Amino acid sequence: MENEFLEISKKRKLEIENPIISESYKQKISGFNTKQELTLFLAEEPKVEYNTEINLKKVISSKIK
Prior knowledge:
Layout (H helix, E strand, L loop, with lengths): L1 H16 L1 H12 L4 H10 L11 H9 L1
């Protein structure tokens, strides 16, 4: 799980640093007429929950090999 979280964080960082992707996000956000429209749009998006638990059995067995 920790590796998965780190991978997501790395990808997000690259998206922010990439001027083309960053500009695309800015255009999408500026397309909303009011802050309320953006808030409603975000409220309707599916929520993804990430587990914060670490599977130690998997980590330990991979280190033993």
